[in-house]
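Duplicate of #3305? Posting structure anyway:
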């Protein structure tokens, strides 16, 4: 059948055009064969429509989002993603005011459907005064584990007009990955400015956004 089709079609052409048409036909037939029952067999039926699977089992999958803003003031250290950064201004807050880590904590809690950082670590509680936010993140990771989830990946953005954060990004990723108990390749941190616009652009504050995905532990 395949040869007959090729012969009939190719009869109308010759030379280079014939070769091009032959290549096109071969490509189309290869694509068709890929869609034949052999590949269809590999697709497993979903037990519930729309439920992702891993190894034939329903995959427990969550996404969470976190956002935080802290004011920049004199006389405070600047800590981002657990990394101390030399700067004229630092972030104001009850804990170390690590705005990036706070956004990550909120993203994980959001994925778990478990409220927010203020509910778990209220700023009226003196035990959290000057607390290292990475330690708070570790406690939230314990909550995540207790609920049977592990981190799949984290993507975060810090919005700051200055100082230049690029030299510190990989350290932040390493610190956050260690607290989240994953390899650093699952953590991505970006830094951006607002080109002088808004409260971040005027150097009054820093803001952070974080998105996480969690999967059920095997
Ligand atoms: Zn905060």
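Output from current build:
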């Amino acid at each position: 059948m395949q040869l007959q089709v090729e012969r009939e079609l190719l009869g109308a052409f010759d030379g280079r055009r014939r070769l091009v048409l032959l290549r096109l036909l071969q490509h189309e037939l290869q694509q068709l064969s890929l869609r034949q029952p052999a590949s269809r067999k590999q697709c497993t039926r979903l037990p519930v429509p729309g439920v992702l699977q891993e190894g034939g089992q329903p995959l427990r999958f969550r996404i969470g989002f976190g956002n935080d803003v802290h004011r920049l003031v004199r006389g405070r250290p600047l800590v981002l993603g657990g990394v101390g950064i030399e700067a004229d201004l630092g972030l104001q807050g009850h804990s170390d005011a690590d705005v990036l880590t706070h956004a990550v904590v909120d993203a994980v809690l959001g994925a778990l459907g478990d409220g927010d950082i203020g509910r778990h670590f209220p700023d009226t509680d003196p035990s959290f005064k000057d607390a290292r936010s990475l330690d708070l993140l570790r406690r939230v990771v314990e909550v995540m584990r207790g609920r049977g989830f592990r981190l799949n990946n984290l993507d975060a953005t810090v919005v700051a007009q200055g100082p230049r954060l690029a030299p510190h990004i990989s350290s932040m990723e390493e610190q956050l990955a260690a607290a989240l108990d994953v390899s650093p390749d699952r953590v991505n941190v970006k830094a951006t400015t607002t080109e002088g616009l808004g409260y971040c652009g005027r150097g009054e504050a820093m803001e952070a956004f974080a998105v996480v995905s969690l999967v059920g532990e095997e």
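Confirmed duplicate; merging threads. The chain is about 40% helix and 25% strand. Confidence is low (pLDDT under 50) at residues 37-46.
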